[in-house]
Amino acid sequence: MLDEFVKLAAAVDQPYNPEKLRTDLVALVGSIEKYEESQSSIDAAAVRKAFDTVRKSSPDHGNRVASAMSTHYFNFNLRVVASEKFLSKVAAETTTKQGAVRDVVLGANVSGNQTTTVTAGVDLKPSNDGIRLNLVIDGVARSNTVGVTDQANVYTSGYHVFKAWKPILFDGNTFTAGAADISVRANNQTTGVSTKYSNIPLFGGFADSIAMGEVAERRGQSEAIAAQRVSSKVLPEFNTEVDAKIVDLNKDYEEKVSAKLRQKDLYPSAASYRSTEDDLRVSTRLMADHELAGGD
Length: 296
Prior knowledge:
Layout: H1 2-9, H2 18-38, H3 41-57, H4 63-72, E1 78-83, H5 84-91, E2 93-105, E3 108-125, E4 131-148, E5 152-170, E6 175-177, E7 181-185, E8 188-195, H6 203-217, H7 219-263, E9 270-275, E10 279-285
Antiparallel strand pairs: 1-10, 2-3, 3-4, 4-5, 5-6, 5-7, 5-8, 9-10
Helix pairs in contact: 2-3
């Protein structure tokens, strides 16, 4: 094994002493074998010292040896896995808002009331260079309105379903957010129509039927307008609220997590942050100068 390493090392265009490198590698292997028998901190420190010596005498700065050492002796020793289902439970928050409706739609003065219910959740995204996720809100806006024109009063029940999402990346130090987006599926059901002729026998029913036909023809337009109204109200508010929370989150993470870990000498010397569609995975290495970390 030592002969093969020295042969490969010779391909690197850096000055080195093959005999010294061979001696240092023998010393490293010997210290590792001793540590495997004792598992003591003294022998662990000896391995670290021997490895540093190999790094200095190797033309590749010990990169080839470091690969094997990383797997067996410098590996992560604290791993955290959290499922998307668990994160969604942690982030879950449902809010309900009620308010009056005052608008002008297709020439009609529209008034009534609306109730909007929103539930927050998390949608993880695959990433090997940080934890990526979408903060998601699923919502329903229910409304009961009357649209008034000179020709008729139109009573409408609205049921508008929407989903908004905002991408977030955590690189191990900082949370950053992208621009939010939204999709809306609007649905308007006409629950009644009245005209100034409604109470006139025979003719009133005919007039109401004409009005209902006009409303049906404009349903597509009214739903498109309803979707735009929901989007223009929800999206800016969602963007602003999440951006503000990201600022607070970064401040809290630095002051309440990172700073305190550094104070107690528990800040990881190496870390990996990644995510899949199903879970996020955090792997960190806590290792003092005289220690070896986890193995494979």
